[in-house]
Amino acid sequence: MGGLPVRVRSRRLGVSSAYFDGRPDQVGRIRDWSRVATGLERGHTDSVELVVSELVTNAVRHSASGNRCGRVRVTVETLPGQIVLVSVTDDGPRTGQPTSLPRIPEQADDLCAGGRGLQLVHELSEKWWWTGCAGSPLTVWALIDPHHDLAQV
Description:
alpha+beta
């Protein structure tokens, strides 16, 4: 496994979209791809890479994207003013599992290894949200200012 991403042609300039295998070992590859897809200089993409990494990890952990043959679609669009719109679309809920929707927990368990990803997305993004319907594939998107000072997060 570990094949190349399947790129999707976009009719709009500045938009890159691709499907990737929904496996945890692909997150680094997707992060690197997203950095290049922004068209921005290295060093200005750290927040984009972190957000994409968190969103893909959530899709793999909490949806059918993490199943055998699962996949995620990642889209990166650099908007005027170099604001970056990223979106990650999953394969929908896992069969036999309760449907979950993206949300920031009211309280994070400090002893728990996970549960802070969407809080990080919230802190790094100008705005984030999700679209879709419970029980079907969801797209989580975020608007990111790559010039935002990460030290303030």
